[in-house]
Design goal:
heterodimer; A: about 260 residues; mainly alpha; B: mainly alpha; 8 helices
């Protein structure tokens, strides 16, 4: 029991320490790196889109179908069929699209980024940049960091459309809801504020996951094992930090941090 | 056309790998299996508890915001039972096991492979399937449901805390709505999902690790592919299991 507590304490202390190191790293990139070179930024954005478009699609469409499936079962029980479309639309726009788009970007691009930068470390490419007086923070890290912030909202918007398509397929194709009523219900349920909140959330998630991935890659140990560990740690910490950020943002955006009573 | 035939070829290799791993399961090294299960379970427990706690918090806040619009925030307990216990906690928990355990196993096996240590095992007439792959596979299948269960519990506890302390929902109403909407069927469905997910994670991780050819880059690639493919196939599996347990698709 005491051992367990001590282990928990050590884990928490480790998390806080690495959080501090992460913040210092990102601050260093922003201060010394500044804005990334435009060509490299565009290239990184394109890479990110190319890498993530298929995984995001493959995960989000079944999720949309799932919401329709569970939602329809629940809603027909209460006899309020007209609420299915708002339920789907709100779930997708508020949580599913930003959350799962970011999750898949963290899994696909986050691990790849961490491994890529760690491999540069192993092959001494980062040292070579420094020898040539090219700042690796500006030329390697900053473009990847900014690309995450720019592309995550884009993928979230795409995920939104795809998830609603997935739930449309189940609701209209299988459960026999009217297509017109479903789509109109979806559109009516989504407010501008929800869309703005979705973009804000996914931009924050993008920032979090790409800084975690770049940090783990940049600080990786110089060995094949170090590469593996960097990509493992990057995906785990990215998922965890996305969930934490999500909770904080939900409280701020939707409830307004109330502590009633 | 080319990529379709590549995909089929990869599927064939994966199936063959799974078959030979399954054949090795009865002869696996039990000590190694227990060791792996311990490492995976203990190493991932804190992460899974944290993931469960924060997804519970996220779900509760979101459910409260949506239900409050209809003036029915006393249904929050039901929302957590139907949304959280049935779908969100098992799915996010399993996805996180896939990410944490899957990428660790994949990069470990890949590191062994490119260090030619798997060849070394074969030279010593130790079957790497029995010694390396089968123990990790079985450990993964055993540990995933336990970790998903921990994630689920953490999710429920955190929903309760958030609902009562942050959002001021009446605790009696919340708990009774929650408990009356959780059935044995939900738990069995979560168990089936976790077992399936563990199987996918274990086989994909070992397979991608085994397929690493040379260089540090292939270690990262193995772990990347494992995590993504486990999540994608797991999402589809989740849809089918939900359909079997709750009906509605066909």
């Amino acid at each position: 029991m005491l051992d367990g507590l001590a282990g928990l304490g050590a884990a928490v202390r480790g998390m806080v320490a690495s959080l501090g190191a992460l913040v210092r790293f990102v601050a260093g990139v922003l201060r010394h790196g500044g804005l990334p070179p435009a060509g490299e930024l565009v290239h990184q954005c394109m890479t990110l889109v190319r890498r993530c478009i298929l995984p995001v699609t493959l995960v989000v469409v079944p999720m949309g179908a799932l919401i329709s499936l569970q939602g329809a079962a629940l809603i027909q029980q209460f006899g309020v069929e007209r609420l299915l479309a708002p339920l789907v639309a709100i779930t997708v726009v508020r949580e599913l699209a930003p959350g799962f788009a970011a999750l898949m970007v963290a899994m696909q691009a986050g691990t790849a980024l961490a491994a890529e930068i760690a491999v540069m470390r192993v092959r001494e490419e980062l040292d070579a940049y420094e020898v040539m007086a090219v700042d690796p923070l500006r030329h390697v890290v900053a473009p990847r960091l900014f690309a995450g912030v720019l592309i995550a909202p884009l993928l979230a918007v795409m995920a939104m459309g795809l998830a609603i398509m997935g739930s449309w397929l189940v609701a209209v194709g299988i459960r026999g809801f009217s297509s017109r009523a479903f789509l109109e219900g979806c559109l009516a349920a989504i407010s501008t504020w929800d869309l703005a909140a979705c973009l804000i959330k996914s931009a924050v998630f993008g920032a979090v996951l790409s800084s975690v991935a770049c940090f783990e890659g940049y600080t990786a140990h110089r060995s094949a094992e170090g590469v593996g560990r960097a990509s493992n740690r990057s995906v785990v910490s990215a998922i965890l930090s996305i969930l934490v950020a999500n909770y904080v943002l939900n409280s701020l955006l939707y409830v307004g941090v109330v502590v009633p009573g | 056309m080319n990529s379709a035939s590549d995909l089929l070829a990869a599927l064939g290799r994966y199936t063959r790998f799974c078959l030979s791993a399954t054949r090795a399961v009865p002869f696996l090294n039990v000590r190694e299996m227990l060791h792996q299960a311990y490492v995976m379970g203990v190493g991932s427990l804190v992460v899974l508890l944290a993931v469960g706690a924060f997804s519970g918090a996220m779900l509760t806040v979101q459910g409260f915001a949506s239900l409050r619009a209809f003036g029915t925030s006393e249904l929050l307990g039901m929302f957590i039972a139907l949304g959280g216990v049935r779908e969100v906690f098992p799915l996010i928990g399993a996805g996180c096991v896939g990410a944490k355990v899957g990428s660790a196993v994949a990069s470990e096996v890949a590191t062994l492979k490119i260090g030619q240590q798997i060849d070394a095992l074969e030279v010593m007439a130790v079957d790497p399937m029995r010694f390396l792959v089968a123990p990790r596979l079985v450990a993964c299948i055993v540990v995933t449901p336990l970790l998903v269960g921990a994630c689920l519990l953490a999710g429920l506890v955190s929903s309760y805390l958030i609902a009562t302390l942050q959002l001021g929902v009446d605790q009696g109403v919340f708990v009774s709505r929650l408990l009356e909407n959780i059935s044995l069927r939900d738990l069995v469905s979560a168990l089936v999902k976790a077992l399936g997910f563990g199987m996918l994670t274990g086989t994909l991780a070992c397979w991608h690790g085994y397929a690493a050819d040379a260089g540090a880059a292939s270690v990262g690639q193995a772990s990347n592919r494992t995590v993504v493919q486990a999540m994608v196939t797991g999402g589809v599996l989740n849809l089918f299991v939900s359909n079997v347990f709750y009906g509605g698709l066909l």
